[in-house]
């Protein structure tokens, strides 16, 4: 009797989402906390870990509550502790990823010469830096701190745990940015928010956003938010009213493709969520609604993306000077153009006629 088709082997990824406070004095102290959390997650059997937005060295909370004229000192301090890519920090994270065979998504303040960027790094389990992307549009107060990213970072990368994409904070309110990742069939989406800001309404909005993306994309979402202690909040601002703006807003969570929490979310304090991602649930969801497959109508609605890196200078090879007007070489080139591009030549003749005016 012929054997029936066997069920594909279940693929399980153990994911960790970290809610954690930075060291506001020293980027090296924050790096140490990152490395300790990676080791802790490895002890829990995690294959994949996500840290909060720009966690290294710290998120610029000061810019949310202080007027720009008073932020120069803290902005300069952020420059001093910001991360260069590549550099000692990326070397340390790469080594940790390799040591623990873990895929790591880390948010950093990236320093590129005279500018800072909100950057997301994805390290594969062999330590390779698979992606460095920059937030395409910093939000409100953040525009005084960071430059803008470009379409080159809107990528989904293949890793040991599957196809991973990432967005930071209110990039999740840009449906086309999310669709760019959905169209590349992301399986695990890393979301990062600063946390400890705005209040409970921020956490509520965040939860709606990440659960909706999981449903719409048919992927798992692993979201990490930061945390500030009472002492840290007091240090950032002596004004009690302003300090209230640096509370709440935490929603560290792991969501499945049907939009459900796999474990209760973490909304206060430091901690780590760990959950097993059954990757077969992606097909289960997409069987019903694949927003970039059988549920799409690309002949009606599609996304055009410019994914070229934005650079301030492009070098073009020197071109030899054109021949003198009316030379035999010039006539030969013109004849060749007419032979290959008669329509373009006709258009040129029409333009010349207009410039000369009506025939006399």
UniProtKB/TrEMBL annotation:
Keywords: Hydrolase. Coiled coil: none annotated. Residues 328-337 have a biased composition (Basic and acidic residues). Pfam families: CN_hydrolase. Residues 13-279 form the CN hydrolase domain. Signal peptide: none annotated. InterPro entries: C-N_Hydrolase, C-N_Hydrolase_sf, Nitrilase, Nitrilase/CN_hydratase_CS, Nitrilases_CHs. Residues 320-360 are annotated as: Disordered. It comes from the Bacteria. GO terms for molecular function: nitrilase activity. PANTHER family: CN HYDROLASE DOMAIN-CONTAINING PROTEIN (PTHR46044:SF1), NITRILASE (PTHR46044). Belongs to the carbon-nitrogen hydrolase superfamily. Nitrilase family. This is Putative amidohydrolase. The lineage of its organism: Bacteria, Pseudomonadati, Pseudomonadota, Alphaproteobacteria, Hyphomicrobiales.
């Amino acid at each position: 009797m012929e054997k029936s088709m066997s069920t594909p082997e279940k693929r399980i990824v153990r994911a960790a989402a970290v809610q954690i406070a930075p060291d506001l004095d020293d980027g090296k102290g924050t790096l140490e906390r990152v490395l300790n959390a990676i080791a802790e997650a490895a002890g829990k059997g995690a294959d994949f870990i996500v840290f909060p937005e720009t966690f290294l060295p710290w998120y610029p909370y000061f810019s949310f509550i202080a007027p720009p004229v008073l932020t120069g000192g803290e902005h300069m301090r952020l420059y001093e502790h910001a991360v260069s890519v590549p550099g000692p920090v990326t070397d340390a994270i790469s080594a940790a990823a390799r040591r623990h065979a873990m895929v790591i998504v880390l948010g950093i303040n990236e320093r590129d010469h005279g500018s800072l960027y909100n950057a997301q790094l994805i390290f594969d389990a062999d330590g390779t830096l698979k992606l460095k992307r920059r937030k395409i549009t910093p939000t409100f107060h953040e525009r005084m701190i960071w430059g803008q990213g470009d379409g080159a970072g809107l990528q989904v990368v293949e890793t040991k745990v599957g196809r991973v994409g990432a967005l930071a904070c209110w990039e999740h309110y840009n449906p086309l940015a999310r669709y760019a990742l959905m169209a590349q069939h992301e399986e695990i989406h890393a979301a990062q928010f600063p946390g400890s800001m705005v209040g409970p309404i921020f956490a509520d909005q965040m939860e709606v956003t990440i659960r909706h993306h999981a449903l719409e994309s048919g992927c798992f979402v692993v979201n990490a938010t930061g945390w500030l202690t009472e002492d840290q909040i007091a240090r950032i601002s002596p004004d009690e009213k302003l300090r209230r703006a640096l509370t709440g807003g935490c929603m560290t969570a792991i969501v499945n493709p049907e939009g459900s929490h796999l474990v209760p979310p973490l909304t206060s304090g430091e901690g780590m969520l760990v959950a097993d991602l059954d990757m077969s649930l992606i097909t289960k969801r997409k069987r019903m609604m694949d927003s970039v497959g059988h549920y799409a109508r690309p002949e009606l609605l599609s996304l055009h993306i410019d994914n070229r890196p934005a650079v301030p200078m492009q070098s073009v090879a020197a071109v030899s000077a054109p021949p003198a007007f009316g030379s035999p070489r010039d006539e030969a080139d013109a004849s060749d153009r007419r032979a290959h591009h008669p329509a373009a030549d006709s258009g040129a003749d029409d333009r010349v006629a207009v410039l000369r005016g009506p025939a006399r």
